[in-house]
């Protein structure tokens, strides 16, 4: 399987497990888990053909570790980034003093006015490493990296969560905590 095919399967999984399981008639449970066998079968019926070994390879090789299996690898889910309502059972915890967010210049005016909003997702996504934020921001053009004073936010009573793949999540980042 070549790199392009793996990337296409990863994008397909993001669509199905984070945003639109109904596209292939897949049912996620309240925690976002899908049955692996059902996913493979329903994906094939929609011209996305892969087997269990390929799915294992895609999940293990995903650079952002977007997906996770349960202990016996019979169920799969996205670690974060959902636009559908799922309960990931994240536990609030203290973040590093600063976190980063990658964006592009065209969004800066809105961010300066309103802060970072979760928009259609369940949370705002923040990175511990600046390089990760640069990679995220570059998906839409020339990246602009914002520094978020997450330690101060936490001390001011704003909750943070750490996803299984190391992405920091919060409900909103008011503009007063952002260094532009």
Features of this protein?
Arc Repressor Mutant, subunit A; 2 domains; 180 residues; 3-stranded antiparallel sheet; 6 helices; RNA_2'-PTrans_KptA; EC 2.7.1.-; tRNA 2'-phosphotransferase activity; Probable RNA 2'-phosphotransferase; alpha+beta; ADP-ribosylation fold
Can you describe what's shown?
The chain has helices spanning 3-19, 36-45, 52-61, 108-114, 130-137, 150-155, and strands spanning 34-35, 67-69, 75-78, 99-104, 116-117, 124-126, 143-148, 161-162, 168-170, 172-173, 178-179. It has 180 residues and is of the alpha+beta class. The protein has 2 domains: 3-78, Arc Repressor Mutant, subunit A (Orthogonal Bundle); 99-179, ADP-ribosylation fold (Alpha-Beta Barrel). A 3-stranded antiparallel sheet has the order 1-3-2. A hairpin with a 5-residue loop joins strand 8 and strand 9 (168-170). The longest helix has 17 residues, at 3-19. It starts with a helix and ends with a strand.
